């Protein structure tokens, strides 16, 4: 800003002292050479002072006085020119007059505008200010998040985006019911929570949690659009797309969870792009991904759990062991990041996730297990807790899915998955006295005989990984998947509401039931239904559809309210209270998996699609002889 402010001053011509043009008519003719000289001297001193002020006064916050001083200089100088010294020049009277007229006119216009403003009501003024603000915001948006051209890359083979209508009328009827539930969840959010992250279906207003920061990022819209597309809810999909186009803005001062934003937003946007082919989803995914990259600026390259989208400052959750990052969070980026490199040609995404993989490969693992906590400053493990439920779950899932998504060429990922699962089976998987197979939690060398709802997804994962498992153990893993599905179904069946608790025990004569009050809730989670769906796809055993239908009925009976769907606080109570939250994953995952369970297999076949951990389908990358930027041939 210094240069432009300076130019009018430095560029100002030092007026020639000459009689006959001054605004001081009495003295004009009588100015002697010495007086002219003194006047010139004073003027030069004044200009020098202005320069001095500009160059030598300190910067930034102290700019105001400088600008003030400069303005005085500028105004005085103009005045001097218009009313005084310049007037001394010969033949300048017309110019002087027109300048004076201009100043007067400007003055009057400003006065007039001020008067008009004063006549306006408070509301009118507010509205005007708002319009101005909106205009500025729009301009900023255009500058900041305007579509950047991306390199043209071949669209991966997108197959099976068909209707998937089942041939059996009774199955079709069930699928229609699930579609209707999706419509109720969406319409309610549309009516009461539009633009907010989630919905409070009882209070009938918007809801958010700290994972999305303080901003309204429309998490439900982004998480749900691909489900709308798959279900053929075209109007609703268009509505969601329009909101994303016009309102989804990541230049906000919000501290968000890198993991949650990746799986729900980037995953959701990429899936919507691949399914619909609409460029806007790809552009938004890339814009957001750029905002997540500063989270990787740690001494080890293991990302922070949270990042501020505006400042790029990252940090970890206060509750995590010794300032650690969480395995399931930094280990659940691979699928989306590989797609980002594929779509943008920017190697950074691929390199970041491969760096994490390499770092983990070098580390010692207690009992061959991956602890849930890793300190991003020191590169050391935190507490030696291992879980296939919360804090660990999707790390294992993404190892398997990295292999599947690479068209089974990423054998390093497959090997890492196989080794991890082998250790988990050895230390964490047990059979209860009643014959139920469960996955416990490993805590410092001790197995806690408790399984979380979140861990129920592993049934589907074991089945998905069966084909390609070492030593031809496909049958074993399919069986393990079936056993986990059975146990998790029992956890639902042993409640009053026929909905599963958050965690259940296999201890002191208890089997698949929650003990503590704060583990009896059901928050519309998908994991059990997800496992039913995978098991259905691999076995076509009708019991999985039957179990899925039980869940549909229970959700519709106990979680449906006039303003959407709500979680319940106690699945063992016949009169449960609501938690008043419609989670975005209910639309992204729970209803999508249910819909797929009652569709034919040609809708999103598993040979061509890999679902991210939030149920967003991403196509298998049949790269052939294309090399991902940043990848070395040896790694593929
Ligand atoms: C989802 O956001 C994802 O599935 C995640 O991996 C863990 N679980 C929640 C829903 O329960």
UniProtKB/TrEMBL annotation:
<dbReference type="GO" id="GO:0070062">
    <property type="term" value="C:extracellular exosome"/>
</dbReference>
<comment type="pathway">
    <text>Protein modification; protein glycosylation.</text>
</comment>
<keyword id="KW-0812">Transmembrane</keyword>
<dbReference type="GO" id="GO:0005509">
    <property type="term" value="F:calcium ion binding"/>
</dbReference>
<feature type="binding site">
    <location>
        <position position="613"/>
    </location>
    <ligand>
        <name>Ca(2+)</name>
    </ligand>
</feature>
<dbReference type="GO" id="GO:0004571">
    <property type="term" value="F:mannosyl-oligosaccharide 1,2-alpha-mannosidase activity"/>
</dbReference>
<dbReference type="GO" id="GO:0005783">
    <property type="term" value="C:endoplasmic reticulum"/>
</dbReference>
<dbReference type="Pfam" id="PF01532">
    <property type="entry name" value="Glyco_hydro_47"/>
</dbReference>
<feature type="transmembrane region" description="Helical">
    <location>
        <begin position="37"/>
        <end position="57"/>
    </location>
</feature>
<keyword id="KW-0378">Hydrolase</keyword>
<feature type="active site" description="Proton donor">
    <location>
        <position position="260"/>
    </location>
</feature>
<comment type="similarity">
    <text>Belongs to the glycosyl hydrolase 47 family.</text>
</comment>
<feature type="coiled-coil region">
    <location>
        <begin position="100"/>
        <end position="142"/>
    </location>
</feature>
<dbReference type="GO" id="GO:0000139">
    <property type="term" value="C:Golgi membrane"/>
</dbReference>
<protein>
    <recommendedName>
        <fullName>alpha-1,2-Mannosidase</fullName>
        <ecNumber>3.2.1.-</ecNumber>
    </recommendedName>
</protein>
<dbReference type="GO" id="GO:0005975">
    <property type="term" value="P:carbohydrate metabolic process"/>
</dbReference>
<dbReference type="InterPro" id="IPR036026">
    <property type="entry name" value="Seven-hairpin_glycosidases"/>
</dbReference>
<dbReference type="InterPro" id="IPR050749">
    <property type="entry name" value="Glycosyl_Hydrolase_47"/>
</dbReference>
<dbReference type="InterPro" id="IPR012341">
    <property type="entry name" value="6hp_glycosidase-like_sf"/>
</dbReference>
<keyword id="KW-0479">Metal-binding</keyword>
<feature type="active site" description="Proton donor">
    <location>
        <position position="502"/>
    </location>
</feature>
<feature type="active site">
    <location>
        <position position="527"/>
    </location>
</feature>
<keyword id="KW-0735">Signal-anchor</keyword>
<feature type="region of interest" description="Disordered">
    <location>
        <begin position="142"/>
        <end position="173"/>
    </location>
</feature>
<feature type="disulfide bond">
    <location>
        <begin position="456"/>
        <end position="488"/>
    </location>
</feature>
<comment type="function">
    <text>Involved in the maturation of Asn-linked oligosaccharides. Progressively trim alpha-1,2-linked mannose residues from Man(9)GlcNAc(2) to produce Man(5)GlcNAc(2).</text>
</comment>
<keyword id="KW-0326">Glycosidase</keyword>
<dbReference type="InterPro" id="IPR001382">
    <property type="entry name" value="Glyco_hydro_47"/>
</dbReference>
<keyword id="KW-1133">Transmembrane helix</keyword>
<keyword id="KW-0106">Calcium</keyword>
<keyword id="KW-0472">Membrane</keyword>
<feature type="active site">
    <location>
        <position position="393"/>
    </location>
</feature>
<keyword id="KW-1015">Disulfide bond</keyword>
<keyword id="KW-0175">Coiled coil</keyword>
